[in-house]
Fold this sequence. Notes:
single chain; 448 residues; alpha/beta; Alkaline Phosphatase, subunit A; eight-stranded mixed sheet; five-stranded antiparallel sheet; 15 helices; 13 strands; 32% helix
Amino acid sequence: MRPPGHGETQPRLDDDRLPVVLVVLDGLGDRPIPELGHRTPSEAAHTPVLDALAARGASGWHLPFGWGRAPSSELAHWALFGYADVPFPGRAVLEALGAGVDVPSGVAVTHAALRTSSADTDGRVWITGRTARDDADDAAVLLEAAGALAAAHGHRLVPLGGRGEAVLLLPGCAAGAVTDSDPFFEDRHPWLRVLPCAEAPEAAPTAEALTALLREARAALVSHPVNHDRRRRGLPALDVLTTKWSGALGAVPPFAEHVGTAGAAVTSTRLYRGLAAVLGMRAHHLAADPDHGADLAARLDAARGLLAEGAAFVHVHTKATDDAGHTKDPRAKLTVLEAADPGLAGLLDLAEHAVVAVTGDHATPSTGGVLHTGDPTPLVVAGPTVRPDGVTSFGEAPAHAGWYGLVSARDLLPLLLGHAHRAAFLGHRPTPRRTAALPDAPEPMIEP
């Protein structure tokens, strides 16, 4: 502590603010599984590094939006980054930005994908599959045809490469709050009509324009020579264009302004590149390495580099755990966790001079007929200011005994900033916006 200033009795406070590194193992949460001894994959996996981190820190359950509410990755991260009260622009906007597509403000955007289908006698169209990797050439031709139809209506279809995916921009439509035509649950709902969301009646023109285009595209795709040839070869026709994640880019305050400190991300997919872009965060993109341990070790190295460049908060993400959960093979998820664990060893050193946290953005159960669920995911936080709570292993059951209890997505960043000696002092207003962190760069008064 430095000596008090003139007329003061309290010592001047040292500036001992710490950086924060948040590692998100996508889809980490799970449910107890009989074949794993009624344990979750996190509980059953041998993870000595994560166990050591738990022993050094404090644990809890991350329950992003409360019991029973099944989060998507994009909405969970939006809240995790402190934006729970800022209107979400729609995942399609983030996917477009992550692909390097220019997204004008106030233009409706949706994600489009070629799908296979089967029509019933009632005129309903049931989605039966998606574009396979070997279908890339056919998908490119079909998307070109769909793009010509879109252009005739004044829209713009931009292929994203690979598996028949694209983003569709509708410049004549300002409101993007419309429903998905993609049913997600293919055996429960057919191809869906696009409607304005209940809270956004102004999106009716967007819904009408999108419905007209999708119906026209359906007719063109069914009769397209590429699909005639696919049927002749015994392959399913890629004859439906589905849409989802619609939205529009509005006013989004940059992370440094909204949170109060500089943020950065080590990204793994197009979605997270787009999230970093829309929030004005510096990003270091790394393609996924099939060696999960090497992959996470490289991501932590990149995080150190971003800290050295001035970031105070760095997000590190891997999709591997979520992908394993979606296989519906519990042992696949367990195997990924065990393979990834050595790659997190760098967190033990980082925790000497930073606040580090590991959690998931949601639960992706590796059994059952669900995608994501509102089950808790383990949370562990360690660092110089974190008092160990007696939990000595990683997983949902051990974490339940941790001191943090239930932590919502909107509360996680303030928790971490508090440990990092960066919490905004409530009642102090150095900036017009209420920030979660004591702001790094409030506007100074300049002498006349």
